[in-house]
Amino acid sequence: MYHNVTLGAAGPTPDYPAASFAGSNSSPSYVQLPPGDVVNGKPASAEVWFQVPKANTTGGVLFSMQQQDLSTMTGSAGQYDPVLYVGSDGKLHGKIWDTTHLSSVPGSAQTVNDGRWHQAVLAASASGQVLYLDGQAVATTTAALEAQSPGYSYGYLGAGPVAGWANKPTNDLGWFPGSIGEFFRFTPTNSRRRRSPRITRRCETLMVVCRRSRGSRSPTRAGRR
Fold first, then answer.
1. CB-based contacts of 31: which residues, under 8 Å, 6+ apart?
2. For 110, what's the count of Cα atoms within 13 Å in the CB-facing half-sphere?
3. Alpha-carbon radius of gyration of the chain
4. How many domains does the chain have?
5. Which of residues 25 and 168 earns the better pLDDT score?
6. For residue 194, what is the domain's CATH number?
7. What pLDDT was estimated at residue 198?
8. What range defines the domain where residue 23 resides?
């Protein structure tokens, strides 16, 4: 489901258009994902292509999972996990909630607020996570994943609560101010099989979410069945 998202923006290549996000309290925009894209304490991998305006210092959330419906929130509340986000430091950060809680949120050494397209991949196993930026591993963790109770019910692109996270975006609801081109979420089966973060089968736009699992490789459109 799309909320105030501009479709058809320039994407990573001419063949792959993107979606542009407003990134502000006055004009919030986001994509609500199908329930199947939300995990809680289980191994999973996510990939997103994104672009941040040059020299932007507000940052924003790329992919978030949370307990509460974003449309009813005015601030951070309940359980939430900003899985991938661009911080106010201009760097990529990400992890799925683990036993270190907020004491360790991996981030890239390289800034991504340069107006260029970047690929982020987070691969999470039961015993650790690896954050990739443009095909290179930039951060790792070795802590075990930890499920939240009662868990997450909602998943979003372009927004999500982020209060308390390291180098968080300036807005506590993490409105993303740039463009997102594609989003992929992989099941644990594929996470174990993949040997690199490179994606060989691409989706056409942000609005196609590829959920690959044993016996199924069909892309599903976000917000639709």
1. 1, 2, 3, 5, 19, 156, 157, 158, 180, 206, 207, 222, 223
2. 15
3. 16
4. 1
5. 168
6. 2.60.120.200
7. 35
8. 2-221
